[in-house]
């Protein structure tokens, strides 16, 4: 945006500066259960909203105006109701509830971003002591992480898996290994939609307990199992699979670690099998998109190694590991914008 007389407008800078206000307003709405209490098309006046949420009239009016301005609520006449996106994803108990993910970032990640300059200057994460621990996921001692993070990631994984399943046909495969698959959101969704597909979630032992809980809750015990292990330390991955998935795994590691893991995938994958690297992919020019680039900043703050890489990076590493014919399937989801797909030759 420019002005012929005064030059570029300051408004883009103002929008960037005020970004935290939108985020914290969004977080406040989730924490106050606004969207869950307005579920089912409920429409309320300012006075009714104040009583419903337990606020005085002034803050209730301010919050309603703010939530409507960022398109999380809609107003008709003198009544406010959930916008479609809020009704779909911000009502607690819905299949792809996004509120847990938002609250994790609000309570766990947001404070750490206060130290982003220190992380940039030292090339060290702010959420883990890199001299003592390789990953924020390595221990079950942090109950906040165990009880909150995995639940937050689960709904995000399920929605992203649904988007991936719409552009890649998993029904052509028999057995999926989800390497570092978290709580099992991906294989639960994929096995539900791809007839005949079975899957194993290869995860740290304490995370496998969460996988089993999520699988049981989804009624998918017949198709999805948990396999304990550590892909950073184990010399090999479980065999017997004709497709492997690495979703939001490789962005946590540096190039050397990622090349080593892809070699393990090559060794364990059945001949003729396929590997998919599902990530927020940076473009070839390394100019965006912002979702991928900013997640790279988040990796700097949270992991000793890792960043968001381009599809060209992944394609090169896959080819060097022995995989053939890498290509990209693209989709739009909160957890990824595409997957780099490659195959292990049959002979």
Shape: globular
Radius of gyration: 22 Å
- Unreliable residue runs: none
* Alpha-beta content class: alpha/beta
The count of β-strands is 11
Biggest beta-sheet profile: 7 strands, mixed
What is the percent of helical residues?
40-55%
Question: Distance N terminus to C terminus?
Answer: 56 Å
**Tally of DSSP helical segments:** 14
Order of helices and strands: EEHHHHHEEHHHHEHEHEEHEHHEE
Mean pLDDT: 92
Name the beta content range.
15-25%
Q: So what's the oligomer here? A: single chain
Walk across the major sheet and give the strand order: 7-6-5-8-9-11-10
Describe the structure in your own words.
The protein has 14 helices and 11 strands. The chain has 347 residues and is α/β, with parallel strands linked by helices. The strands form 3 sheets. A 7-stranded mixed β-sheet has the order 7-6-5-8-9-11-10, with helices on both faces. The longest helix has 25 residues, at 143-167.
Present the secondary structure layout.
Layout: E1 2-3, E2 7-8, H1 11-17, H2 19-31, H3 34-37, H4 46-53, H5 57-69, E3 73-76, E4 79-82, H6 84-89, H7 99-112, H8 116-122, H9 143-167, E5 175-179, H10 185-193, E6 198-203, H11 205-218, E7 224-228, E8 241-247, H12 255-268, E9 269-279, H13 290-302, H14 311-321, E10 324-330, E11 338-343
Parallel strand pairs: 5-6, 5-8, 6-7, 8-9
Antiparallel strand pairs: 1-2, 3-4, 9-11, 10-11
Helix pairs in contact: 2-7, 4-5, 7-9, 9-10, 12-14
């Amino acid at each position: 945006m420019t002005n012929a007389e005064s030059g570029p407008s300051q408004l883009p800078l103002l929008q960037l500066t005020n970004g935290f206000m939108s985020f914290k307003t969004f977080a406040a709405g989730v924490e106050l259960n606004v969207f869950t209490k307005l579920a089912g098309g409920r429409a309320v006046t300012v006075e009714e909203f104040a009583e419903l949420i337990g606020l005085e009239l002034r803050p209730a009016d301010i919050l309603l105006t703010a939530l409507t301005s960022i398109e999380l609520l809609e107003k008709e006449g003198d009544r406010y109701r959930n916008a479609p996106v809020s009704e779909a994803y911000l009502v607690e108990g819905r299949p792809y509830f996004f509120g847990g993910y938002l609250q994790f970032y609000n309570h766990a990640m947001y404070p750490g971003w206060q130290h982003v300059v220190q992380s940039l200057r030292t090339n060290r994460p702010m959420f883990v002591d890199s001299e003592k621990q390789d990953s924020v996921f390595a221990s079950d001692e942090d109950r906040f992480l165990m009880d909150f993070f995995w639940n937050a990631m689960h709904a995000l994984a399920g929605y992203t898996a649904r988007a991936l399943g719409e552009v890649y046909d998993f029904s052509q495969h028999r057995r999926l290994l989800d390497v570092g698959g978290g709580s099992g959101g991906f294989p639960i969704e994929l096995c539900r939609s791809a007839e005949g597909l079975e899957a194993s979630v290869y995860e740290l032992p304490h995370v496998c307990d969460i996988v089993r809980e999520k699988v049981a809750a989804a009624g998918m015990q017949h198709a999805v199992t948990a396999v304990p292990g550590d892909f950073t330390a184990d010399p090999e991955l479980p065999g017997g699979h004709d497709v492997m998935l690495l979703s939001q795994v490789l962005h946590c590691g540096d190039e050397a670690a990622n090349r080593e893991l892809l070699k393990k995938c090559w060794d364990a994958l059945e001949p003729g099998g396929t590997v998919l690297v599902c990530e927020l992919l940076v473009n070839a020019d390394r100019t965006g998109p912002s979702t991928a680039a900013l997640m790279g900043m988040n990796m700097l703050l949270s992991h000793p190694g890792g960043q968001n890489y381009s599809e060209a990076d992944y394609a090169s590493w896959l080819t060097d590991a022995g995989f053939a014919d890498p290509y990209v399937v693209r989709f739009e989801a909160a957890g990824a914008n595409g997957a780099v797909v490659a195959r292990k030759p049959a002979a």
